[in-house]
């Protein structure tokens, strides 16, 4: 830890502590020169050697100035942090200003050193690992937590971080930080069966600040949740299929009592709803587990848009909306046609379900050369803005009663979110209550494909 320089009290240790103009100090030298010349003139007139005495006076004055210069140089060279010599005239003013500037600089330096020491102490106390990496990708500094979580040792100072954390996922993340704004989760290189979340930030050009923390417990809980959802969904499919089959058999009987028919119709509707929920859970589970599956198909957007439009018209029979299709882009998409169709279809069916009968729904595909946009615009009931940040959460519902009436599972937008994340896209939502909503899917430029590019 650095010790700050001692900061003396200038007012107590320097007798010349006053704010005066340079002319005030220069007048002291001029008065001294005038005094020497006056004495020399008197002696010269008395002895008959006027010019010689005047030259001697100038020489004495010049010698005093050289002495002052010598003292100034000796102080600056050997004792810059001591109180300066007590000089008069311009040299005194120079020393005073230099000393005052040095004192202010030492005060600022002491404050900065103290601030740095406090910052380092707080970083050392953190449970999260912190690593400073320079422009050459070499490790400059790390806190004790980095030794526990990342396995960095005292001999690693100055080593390239990529020779210590050699996992392919980390190397990819290190070289493309901007493409992973949420950071990277990977296995710990120091502890088996442990996971760390790593986030890096650039600063000062190509230097990097790496922060990592243990997410093993969170990872295990998430894995337990995924396994539970996956297993329970598979286990539910068989009994639901059996129930649905028997209910459909009873419902088709012509001599069925109307009271029983109403009960079987309700059971059939709820069974379909449960089937839809199980299918959505299985789809969501598959999307989470297949993140590394290549999404490099060329999806012909005009054909997909027309297929979605035809499906929407079939779904719209009971609602009577006016459906419009607006395509003004010649770009196709690079991705998974099945997953994209599922995400787009979810947005379209949501718009149809939550728009009062006789509304207008417009499905669009556009681009501005930098991004591609799939849009669904409706004149529906709209959404309160306070609900918008949570719409893509699983099972989040703005109105539970309304969702039950429409048969929603609460997973549609969660599926959309996962599909878009795997295609480097994101969802923008603009909505006003009783005026309608606009759902816009934004794709980056590298996901757009033009046939003339080949």
Automatic annotation (TrEMBL):
It comes from the Bacteria. Pfam families: HATPase_c, HisKA, PAS_8, PhoR. The chain crosses the membrane at residues 32-64. InterPro entries: BphY/WalK/GraS-like, HATPase_C_sf, HATPase_dom, His_kinase_dom, HisK_dim/P_dom, HisK_dim/P_sf, PAS, PhoR_N. Residues 231-447 form the Histidine kinase domain. Keywords: ATP-binding, Cell membrane, Kinase, Membrane, Nucleotide-binding, Phosphate transport, Phosphoprotein, Transferase, Transmembrane, Transmembrane helix, Transport, Two-component regulatory system. Member of the two-component regulatory system PhoR/PhoB involved in the phosphate regulon genes expression. PhoR may function as a membrane-associated protein kinase that phosphorylates PhoB in response to environmental signals. This is Phosphate regulon sensor protein PhoR. The gene is phoR.
